[in-house]
Design brief:
The chain is α/β, with parallel strands linked by helices and about 575 residues long. It is built from 20 helices and 25 strands. About 55% of the residues are buried. Bound molecules: 6-O-phosphono-alpha-D-glucopyranose.
Length: about 575
C-alpha cells in the first residue's frame, strides 16, 4: 500500500539507480504510478510516471536526473486517480515529500491552506503535507522545526520522507501507523521495509510510532514523539528475509507456490508449540483479512474439534464497528502475512482496549507492527512473499494453526511430517492443471464448492482466481449450493468441487450430482478412493490420499496452480494484479 524510500549519499554520488532498486523491491506495495525526486545543485528535480515502475525507468533513460540525496515512491491510489499529476513525490516550492498512509483530516487542512493562498495541484491527501511544511519554511523555520510544528496538526497514518532544497544533504522522515525502517550500510536510508534497503544496508532500526529521523551520508539522528533525541539499537538485517529474486522462475507467484513444501517444513521446525498458551482459555477469537481470514476459518474447524475450545473467526475490518462482546479468558489470535494490515491492527487494538485478553499473532514479516501489539508471536517461515496473491504464507499460516490444534496429538504430529512430500507430489501435477486451466480460462464466472474445512478452501480458490485472472468466482459451502447458487449452473460455468473421500464424501458427491444434472463443466479434485465412486462425466484431478485433517493444506495447492495457469492463459501479470496491493495499510 504505497512504498517509500529515501537514500542519502556523499557529495558527488548519484543515488538514482539505488532509489530505483529500492522501488523495485517495493512494487508489491502498489504499482499505480512511481516517482523520484533528488536535489541537484540546490534544486529539487523530480520525475514521475503513471503505471508500473518500468515506465519511470524508461523516462529516466530519456531524461536522466541525478543527485546525492533522493526519495522515491510507488503508489497504490487512495485519494486521487492513478495519474501522473497525482504521483509522488509531491512538491511545494522548496519541499518534496513521499507518503504512505492517509492524512484523514486533509480536507480541513486543505481548506485552510487554500485560504492562505496555497495552490493545490493534485487530488491527493499528501499535498497538504508538502504545503504545511512549506508554510513553516516560509515563516523562517528550519526543516526539522517545520516538521515538529506540523506533526500535531495531522491525523491519520503516515510514513513520510522529505527533502528540502535548503538542506540539500538530508532526508527527514517520520512514522505513525505505517511502517518505516532506517538502514545503515554503504548508505544511510529509510524505506517501507527491509527488502527495499537491503541492497545497500546491512543493519536496520525499526522506527516506532511517532519517531522521527534525520539522515545524511554520515549520521542518523533519532527523536521520539516528544522530540527528545534517542539512540535506538541497530539490528542485523535477517538475510533469510531478503528477497533473493525470481531465480529460475518466470514470476514470483510460481516460485512461491513451488516453495510451499519447504516452507511447511521450516515452519514446523521453527515453531514448537507448548499447550500452556491455552491454559485457562475459554474462547478463541481469530481476527484476520483476505487470505489470512480463510486460514482463520479453517483453524475454527481444527480448534473446536481438537482443542475443544469454542472459536470465533471475525473479518478484522468489520469487527470493531459492531460493538462486539469480547468476554473473559479469551485468547485473541491475529493472523497476518504482512503484520501491517491496518484493519487487523486496529481490531487487535480494540480487543486490547476493551478486554484483558491475551493476544497472539501469526505473522510472516518479522518485527512488523503486529509484533509490537501482541503478547507473543509465531512466525511463519515463508521468507519474503512478493507475489501479491498470497500462496506460501497461507500454507505456512495453516501449518502453525494445525500445529496449535494438534500439539497434543502425537499421531497427527507424526503424520504432519509426511505432508511436504505429498505437496511435492501435487506440484508434479502441473501439466494436468494447466490443461484444466484451458477449460476455465474463457469463462466469465466460476463456482467453487467445498464442505467442512474445505469450504474455506473453496473461498480461497475463488479468491485466487478472481485476484489474478479477473474471472468472477465465488466459493460456496457445497450444501448451500441448492439454496441459491445452483441457479447459476449452466453448460458453460465451471463448477470446481473439492471432494476427498472423507466422512462428508456422500453429502458432497450428491451436491456434485446436482451440478452434473445441470451443467457440463464440472471439475472435481478428489483422491483415489473418491475417484472410484464419482461420476466419469466430470473432469477429475486425483490428489494423494491423506489423513483428513491435512486436506485443506493439500487441496489449496492445485487451486493456486489452477488460478495461476488460468491467469497466464489470459495474459495477466500474476505478480501484480490490477488494483491490488500486498499489504493494505489503509482502512
Ligand atoms: C491484501 C492482500 C491479500 C492479503 C490481505 C491480508 O488484501 O492482497 O493477499 O490476504 O491483504 O493481508 P495480511 O498481510 O494481513 O495477511
Amino acid at each position: 500500500m504505497c512504498g517509500i524510500i529515501g537514500i542519502t549519499g556523499r557529495l558527488g554520488d548519484n543515488i538514482v539507480s539505488k532509489v530505483i532498486t529500492g522501488l523495485e523491491k517495493l512494487e508489491y506495495r502498489g504499482y499505480d504510478s512511481a516517482g523520484i525526486a533528488v536535489i541537484a545543485n540546490g534544486q529539487i528535480e523530480r520525475l514521475r510516471a503513471v503505471g508500473k515502475l518500468q515506465n519511470l525507468k524508461n523516462k529516466l533513460e530519456d531524461t536522466p536526473i541525478s543527485g546525492n540525496v533522493g526519495i522515491g515512491h510507488t503508489r497504490w491510489a487512495t485519494h486521487g486517480k492513478p495519474t501522473e499529476h497525482n504521483a509522488h513525490p509531491i512538491i511545494s516550492e522548496t519541499v518534496a515529500v513521499v507518503h504512505n498512509g492517509i492524512i484523514e483530516n486533509f480536507r480541513e487542512l486543505k481548506f485552510d491552506l487554500q485560504k492562505e493562498g496555497f495552490v493545490f495541484e493534485t487530488e491527493t491527501d499528501t499535498e497538504v503535507l508538502a504545503h504545511l511544511l512549506q508554510r513553516e519554511i516560509n515563516k523562517g523555520y528550519q526543516p526539522s522545526e517545520a516538521f515538529k510544528n506540523i506533526l500535531g496538526l495531522i491525523n491519520g497514518s503516515y510514513a513520510i520522507a522529505s527533502i528540502f532544497s535548503s538542506l540539500p544533504n538530508t532526508i527527514i522522515a517520520v512514522k505513525h501507523k505505517s511502517p518505516l525502517v532506517v538502514g545503515f550500510g554503504e548508505n544511510i536510508c529509510v524505506g517501507s521495509d527491509i527488502n527495499s534497503i537491503s541492497a545497500v544496508c546491512r543493519e536496520v532500526v525499526y522506527l516506532e510510532d511517532g519517531e522521527y529521523v534525520e539522515i545524511s551520508a554520515n549520521e542518523a539522528l533519532f527523536f521520539d514523539k516528544t522530540f527528545r533525541q534517542i539512540f535506538p539499537v541497530k539490528q542485523k538485517i535477517p538475510l533469510d528475509f531478503v528477497n533473493s529474486g525470481k531465480g529460475k522462475y518466470m514470476n514470483y507467484m510460481l516460485k512461491e507456490i513451488v516453495e510451499q513444501p519447504s516452507t511447511i517444513r521450516k515452519t514446523l521446525l521453527h515453531n514448537k508449540i507448548n499447550g500452556e498458551i491455552f491454559n485457562g482459555i475459554s474462547r478463541i477469537l481469530i481476527l484476520a483479512c483476505g487470505t489470512s481470514y480463510h486460514a482463520g476459518m479453517i483453524a475454527k474447524y481444527w480448534f473446536e474439534k481438537f482443542l475443544k475450545i469454542p472459536t470465533d473467526i471475525e473479518i478484522a475490518s468489520e469487527y470493531r464497528y459492531r460493538f462486539p462482546i469480547i468476554g473473559e479468558n479469551i485468547l485473541a489470535i491475529a493472523i497476518t502475512q504482512s503484520g501491517e494490515t491496518i484493519d487487523t491492527l486496529e481490531a487487535v487494538e480494540y480487543v486490547r482496549k476493551n478486554s484483558n485478553s491475551r493476544v497472539m499473532a501469526i505473522a510472516n514479516v518479522k518485527n512488523s507492527a503486529i509484533s509490537r501489539i501482541s503478547d507473543f508471536i509465531f512466525y511463519t517461515e515463508a521468507g519474503a512473499e512478493i507475489g501479491v496473491a498470497s500462496t506460501k504464507a497461507f500454507s505456512a499460516q495453516l501449518t502453525i494453526l494445525a500445529n496449535l490444534a494438534f500439539y497434543n496429538n502425537e499421531f497427527l504430529m507424526q503424520e504432519f511430517q509426511n505432508l511436504p512430500t505429498l505437496c511435492e507430489e501435487i506440484l508434479g501435477l502441473q501439466d494436468k492443471i494447466e490443461n484444466l486451466a484451458k477449460k476455465i480460462c474463457s469463462a466469465d464466472s466460476a463456482i467453487y464448492l467445498g464442505r467442512g474445512s474445505l469450504y474455506p478452501i473453496a473461498l480461497e480458490g475463488a479468491l485466487k482466481l478472481k485476484e489474478i485472472s479477473y474471472i468472477h468466482a465465488e466459493g460456496f459451502a457445497a450444501g448451500e449450493m441448492k439454496h441459491g447458487p445452483i441457479a447459476l449452473v449452466d453448460d458453460d460455468i465451471p463448477v470446481i468441487c473439492l471432494c476427498p473421500h472423507n466422512e462428508l464424501f456422500e453429502k458432497t458427491s450428491s451436491n456434485i450430482q446436482m451440478a452434473l444434472a445441470r451443467g457440463k463443466n464440472i471439475i472435481i479434485f478428489t483422491d483415489p478412493s473418491g475417484d472410484k465412486l464419482l461420476s466419469p462425466e466430470a473432469t477429475k484431478i486425483i490428489l494423494p490420499q491423506i489423513f483428513d485433517e491435512f486436506v485443506p493444506i493439500l487441496y489449496v495447492i492445485p487451486l493456486q496452480l489452477l488460478a495461476y495457469h488460468t491467469a497466464l492463459l489470459r495474459g495477466m501479470d500474476v505478480d501484480k494484479p490490477r488494483n491490488l496491493a500486498k499489504s493494505v495499510t489503509v482502512e
